[in-house]
């Protein structure tokens, strides 16, 4: 369905960043890109794949490529040309802000959101901007026949947003017919160049579609399918099951093949069976997980295949979605435990796996090698069984106990955890990791930083302090490195957006905590000040969301194991005299299933895991949580169910939109709606922060209202951070005096 574009050693990232910095020319960047594309195609051919995708390369993002291809470039970028225009849309220039960027479905990949005007005039770009044609021809010159991959018209339009100030009632879907005509022209051009197949990616089919959207789907593919001169069409869906109704609608069009994701959407089996009508289509069965790092289970592949055989004209095998979402090559991971490694497959291995699975299915006596089982940790399992569903005392009881113990003022001030990560801190961590400095020097450097941050916060007059998180490379990786059942990779990079890559840890077995993970740093910070220092942990859902997670048991079960480890950590923090503990869940919203029908079950286990982690805390221990997103309507009731004593949440960036929801929901615990946006270096004035606070006081009583920024400060610099926090403290004092 698609392949990583970054290169096994992130060659594309480095070349692109060199181009941005003016160190290499556009031609040099293009040359790196061409060589990466060529080596992917060659590799896929040599691995023995029967058909090979192209146009899966991108300098930044495939949605942005589509915007360029159909000439939907917003007016403000039109003075620029070529790569400069492209990167201006992706990341802005000194004068121009970039286009918006957001998450690609429920993955950690981000796409550039098309911004479409009512009077948009799509037209097919020429030359290399007609990228699918250019790449097809490029591959063909290497003697490799490919299947260009295109973002489907429905997905493109449903992920687009109307240009600001568009007339009411306009939705990008109104532009369908014009967009489809542009795609029709593209198909003709591809056919002219010799293309036998194209792939239209329509992952929106894994979401709930309205009647109008389903009609649009049918209209688009009837038109494209009906073209007299065109390549054959594979309509690829992924990230979940497609409804039988959608399948029936597709089956009625002339597309030749339908791609279905049987990993994220096991329900597709049922859909295919009840839709019927696929007997004249090829079903491309996504059986190798494109989003996770495990080898496929041959028994499962076999049974999927067996069911499909009778229902389709022909069955082909593929990855469940583009392999963009997994690291490139397991061969680079020389330090992994061989027992874990034996269960893994990265992109390169998954291609080999597909070829082998297909060969096995064709053979007389398939399936010699079952997957190795995951060893269980009986102690973890027994402890979890004994725990059951844990709850804390009533909120009123806790509130009174905490008030008595902590003695905090109304409108208490705090921060979200991290302080700026200076070059010196990063250097100290890197030196330690590389063995250039010894343990004692490292500890001294971190303690030094913690002491500095504590003094700074005392000077600013904050009420609840933090240690500043200097020792954390990343809020998930830090804990993953300290938990059994987790492994880190050396080169397991995955594109998150543009040149930004992440290296998610791998949660491969039963999770447990061999020793305390954060207690020493936090206790040291507390030893320096009479003010309360807030302990800082990453919650179970976020630990899963930003990792590759074992798939041999339900996520809910794995979340409980992580929660148990956190529960132990919280007990140890309490023992060390920490009275306030924050369990961050910034990814709670992100794992929300695409279909509404699946959301309740997810939220139930997510909430349960958080409660399992936190419910061992004494009544007088104040549990905080933090999240950063702004779609409050759908998420506020689960947030209330977490039953944290205090929740800090992004609000300034979304203009305090959360307040009416809070009032409507009768939210009764403490809440800290962020009073300033930390994503920009701008220093907010005390007056504007105070205005936000007065606004918030309309919805929340003063003894439950907290004063904090939108999120952690690690990406900021010190001067602006100090100035902003000083203004925040002044604003809190003024608002307090006015209550
Ligand atoms: N405690 C973390 C920090 O301050 C929270 C980060 C986040 O919300 N993503 O950095
Ligand atoms: Zn945050």
From TrEMBL:
Keyword ATP-binding among UniProt keywords: no
Keywords recorded for this protein, A-Z: Amino-acid biosynthesis, Metal-binding, Methionine biosynthesis, Methyltransferase, Repeat, Transferase, Zinc
Ranges of residues in domain Cobalamin-independent methionine synthase MetE C-terminal/archaeal: 411-733
Tree of life domain: Bacteria
Binding site for L-methionine: 416-418, 469, 584
Gene Ontology biological process terms, A to Z: methionine biosynthetic process; methylation
Catalytic activity line of the entry: 5-methyltetrahydropteroyltri-L-glutamate + L-homocysteine = tetrahydropteroyltri-L-glutamate + L-methionine
Span of domain Cobalamin-independent methionine synthase MetE N-terminal: 1-304
Co-factor: note: Binds 1 zinc ion per subunit.
Binding site for 5-methyltetrahydropteroyltri-L-glutamate: 10-13, 103, 108, 500-501, 546, 590
Binding residue positions for Zn(2+): 626, 628, 650, 711
EC number from the UniProt entry: 2.1.1.14
Entries under Pfam families matching the protein: Meth_synt_1, Meth_synt_2
Known pathway: Amino-acid biosynthesis; L-methionine biosynthesis via de novo pathway; L-methionine from L-homocysteine (MetE route): step 1/1
GO terms for MF: 5-methyltetrahydropteroyltriglutamate-homocysteine S-methyltransferase activity; zinc ion binding
InterPro entries: Cbl-indep_Met_Synth_N (IPR013215), Cobalamin-indep_Met_synthase (IPR006276), Met_Synth_C/arc (IPR002629), UROD/MetE-like_sf (IPR038071)
Cofactor or coenzyme needed: Zn(2+)
Catalytic residues in the record: 679 (proton donor)
Major enzyme class: transferase
Gene3D superfamilies (UniProt xref): 3.20.20.210
UniProt: L-homocysteine binding residues: 416-418, 469, 584
General function of this protein: Catalyzes the transfer of a methyl group from 5-methyltetrahydrofolate to homocysteine resulting in methionine formation.
Family: Belongs to the vitamin-B12 independent methionine synthase family.
Family annotation (PANTHER family): 5-METHYLTETRAHYDROPTEROYLTRIGLUTAMATE--HOMOCYSTEINE METHYLTRANSFERASE (PTHR30519)
Name by which UniProt lists this protein: 5-methyltetrahydropteroyltriglutamate--homocysteine methyltransferase
Organism per entry: Acrocarpospora phusangensis
């Amino acid at each position: 369905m698609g392949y990583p574009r970054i290169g096994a050693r992130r060659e594309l990232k480095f070349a692109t960043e060199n181009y941005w910095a003016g160190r290499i020319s556009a031609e040099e960047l293009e040359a790196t890109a061409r060589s990466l594309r060529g080596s992917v195609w060659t590799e896929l051919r040599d691995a023995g794949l029967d058909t090979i995708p192209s146009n899966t390369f991108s300098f930044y993002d495939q949605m942005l490529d589509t915007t360029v291809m159909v000439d939907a470039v917003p007016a403000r970028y039109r003075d620029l040309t070529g790569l400069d225009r492209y990167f201006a849309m992706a990341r802005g220039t000194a004068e121009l802000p970039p286009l918006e960027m957001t998450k690609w479905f429920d993955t950690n990949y981000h796409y550039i959101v098309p911004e479409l005007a009512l009077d948009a005039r799509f037209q097919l770009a020429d030359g290399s901007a007609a990228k699918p044609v250019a790449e097809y021809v490029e591959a063909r010159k290497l003697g490799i026949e490919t299947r260009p991959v295109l973002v489907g018209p429905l997905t493109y339009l449903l992920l687009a947003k109307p240009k600001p100030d568009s007339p009411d009632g306009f939705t990008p879907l109104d532009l369908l017919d014009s967009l489809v005509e542009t795609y029709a022209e593209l198909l003709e051009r591809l056919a002219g160049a010799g293309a036998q197949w194209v792939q239209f990616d329509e992952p929106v089919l894994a979401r709930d579609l309205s009647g109008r959207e389903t009609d649009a789907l049918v209209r688009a593919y009837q038109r494209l399918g009906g073209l007299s001169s065109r390549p054959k069409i594979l309509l690829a869906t992924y990230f979940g099951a497609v409804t039988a109704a959608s399948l029936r609608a597709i089956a009625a069009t002339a597309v030749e093949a339908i791609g279905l994701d049987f990993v994220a959407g096991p329900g597709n089996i049922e859909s295919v069976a009840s839709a019927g009508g696929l007997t004249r289509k090829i079903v491309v069965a996504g059986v190798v997980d494109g989003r996770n790092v495990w080898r496929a289970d041959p028994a499962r592949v076999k049974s999927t295949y067996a069911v499909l055989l009778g229902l389709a004209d022909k069955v082909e095998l593929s990855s469940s979605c583009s392999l963009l979402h997994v690291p490139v090559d397991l061969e680079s991971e020389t330090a992994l435990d061989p027992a874990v490694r034996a269960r893994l497959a990265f992109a390169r291995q998954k291609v080999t796996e597909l070829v082998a699975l297909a060969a096995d299915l064709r053979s007389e006596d398939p399936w010699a090698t079952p997957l190795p089982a995951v060893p269980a940790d009986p102690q973890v399992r027994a402890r979890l069984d004994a725990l059951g569903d844990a709850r804390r005392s009533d909120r009123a009881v806790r509130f009174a106990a905490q008030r008595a113990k902590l003695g905090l003022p109304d409108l208490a001030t705090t921060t979200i955890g991290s302080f700026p990560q200076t070059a010196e801190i990063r250097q100290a961590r890197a030196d330690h990791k590389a063995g250039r400095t010894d343990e004692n020097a490292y500890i001294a450097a971190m303690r030094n930083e913690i002491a500095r941050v504590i003094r700074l916060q005392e000077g600013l007059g904050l009420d609840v302090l933090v240690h500043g998180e200097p020792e954390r490379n990343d809020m998930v990786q830090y804990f993953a490195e300290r938990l059994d059942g987790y492994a880190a990779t050396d080169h397991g990079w995955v594109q998150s957006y543009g040149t930004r890559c992440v290296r998610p840890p791998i949660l491969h077995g039963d999770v447990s905590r061999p020793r305390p993970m954060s207690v020493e740093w936090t206790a040291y910070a507390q030893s320096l000040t009479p003010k309360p220092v807030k302990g800082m942990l990453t919650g179970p859902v976020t630990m899963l969301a930003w990792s590759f997670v074992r798939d041999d048991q339900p996520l809910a079960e794995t979340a409980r194991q992580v929660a148990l480890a956190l529960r132990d950590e919280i007990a140890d923090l309490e023992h060390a005299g920490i009275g306030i503990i924050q369990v961050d869940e910034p990814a709670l919203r992100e794992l929300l299933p695409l279909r509404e029908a699946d959301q309740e079950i997810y939220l139930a286990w997510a909430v349960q895991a958080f409660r399992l982690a936190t419910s061992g805390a004494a009544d007088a221990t104040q549990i905080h949580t933090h999240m950063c997103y702004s779609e409050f309507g759908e998420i506020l009731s689960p947030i209330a169910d977490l039953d944290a004593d205090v929740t800090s949440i992004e609000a300034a960036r979304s203009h305090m939109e959360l307040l009416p929801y809070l009032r409507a929901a009768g939210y009764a615990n403490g809440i800290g709606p962020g009073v300033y946006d930390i994503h920009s270096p701008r220093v907010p004035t005390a007056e504007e922060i105070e205005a936000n606070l007065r606004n918030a006081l309309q919805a929340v009583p003063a003894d439950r209202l907290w004063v904090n920024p939108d999120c952690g400060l690690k990406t900021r610099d010190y001067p602006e951070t100090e100035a902003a926090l000083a203004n925040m403290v002044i604003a809190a004092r003024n608002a307090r005096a006015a209550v």
